[in-house]
Amino acid sequence: MAATTTATTPDETLFERAAGGLHIGGIPAGRLAERVGSTPFFAYDRALITRRVAAVRAALPADVHLSYAVKANPMPAVLHHLAGLVDGFDVASGGELRHALDTPVSADRISFAGPGKSTAELRQAVAAGVTVELESATELARVRELADDLGRPARLALRVNPDFALKGAGMRMGGGPQQFGVDAERVPELVAEITAAGLDLLGFHVFAGSQNLRADSIREAQTATVELLLRLADTLPGPLRYLNLGGGFGIPYATRDTPLDLPGVGTHLADLLATRIRPRHPAARVALELGRYLVGEAGVYLTRVVDRKESRGTTFLVVDGGLHHQLAASGNFGQVIRRNYPVAVAHRAAGPTADAPSETVTVVGCLCTPLDLLGDRVELPRAEIGDLIAVFQAGAYGRTASPSAFLGHPEPVEVLV
């Protein structure tokens, strides 16, 4: 039998609690649900996003450009809010590109990465003037044809598959054979081909992995990335103008997770800039690409209890949401060993009281599958039918990373407050 875990919220300073109730964007969760008009829904706190970007800015060197990875949360309202806070966007599809171009962020501050860009998507990118981060020699050939057809130059960078792997990453995207990027040893020949074709190669991009909470691992990867890209920069016919060091900063999802030492990462990056990058490439635009780290902890998934039942000694809270909206919280989005996300009874977010003592419950969704599990044997104040359950850490890879069409339930609403 699984051990009971106490359901806790993230850092107590993140979301306000007043009279025991959870507030999001200054609004009590219950009133916000009435304002939205239905459950389940995602709510993102704009003030928390602003605060997180400010913390990153304070920790990183001033001349590092901060780019937002749109894949983490492509909600248009979130993008428009972030457009005034970050230096650029990174997109991974034609749909994300359209959303990014709808914001005030200029096209030359948008990069387009991804191993399977269609010809139509590449045409969009070249026409818009965004930076295409090439993933293969055949993608280069298609971009050349499109640039000729459109009669406009293509802005290019090479995504490099490094010859090292990021230790401690939740998901590795570099090192060994990969669908991502051009193997480092093949980059010089591709640079020569780009140069011979007279195309505009700005620089390089490496993204070694994601969801890393180990500052030492990130520092090690950044050092290796910089050394690799400095070697490759020597193959360029002109100055290096673009150096995307990736990101991969993780956020805590379980009580045993230790938050990333952001200042430690920033100090190390400042040293790399001062001693390795700037002496050789003083004008290069050095970028970090962060998604989850900027928005993940600012989101809450709110779902309502529709049934309460006992089965052979286990109390189940059945809610109207589930894995079709929040796949990651169910443990089916990259987790090898399932761990509970922080959850709370929204109107009792401060914890149990005399009239609502704590109890051990399992929170399950409304889908007809045993995989639909949002909280396994968690300790919560007693909840009744009609109460709201809050699932935290829901600001990244939530709605758009979930199988929303499964079993035909309605799409969840998203709000930025």
Automatic annotation (TrEMBL):
<dbReference type="InterPro" id="IPR017530">
    <property type="entry name" value="DCO2ase_PEP1"/>
</dbReference>
<dbReference type="InterPro" id="IPR000183">
    <property type="entry name" value="Orn/DAP/Arg_de-COase"/>
</dbReference>
<protein>
    <submittedName>
        <fullName>Pyridoxal-dependent decarboxylase, exosortase A system-associated</fullName>
    </submittedName>
</protein>
<dbReference type="InterPro" id="IPR029066">
    <property type="entry name" value="PLP-binding_barrel"/>
</dbReference>
<dbReference type="InterPro" id="IPR009006">
    <property type="entry name" value="Ala_racemase/Decarboxylase_C"/>
</dbReference>
<keyword id="KW-0663">Pyridoxal phosphate</keyword>
<dbReference type="Pfam" id="PF02784">
    <property type="entry name" value="Orn_Arg_deC_N"/>
</dbReference>
<dbReference type="InterPro" id="IPR022644">
    <property type="entry name" value="De-COase2_N"/>
</dbReference>
<feature type="domain" description="Orn/DAP/Arg decarboxylase 2 N-terminal">
    <location>
        <begin position="47"/>
        <end position="295"/>
    </location>
</feature>
<dbReference type="InterPro" id="IPR022657">
    <property type="entry name" value="De-COase2_CS"/>
</dbReference>
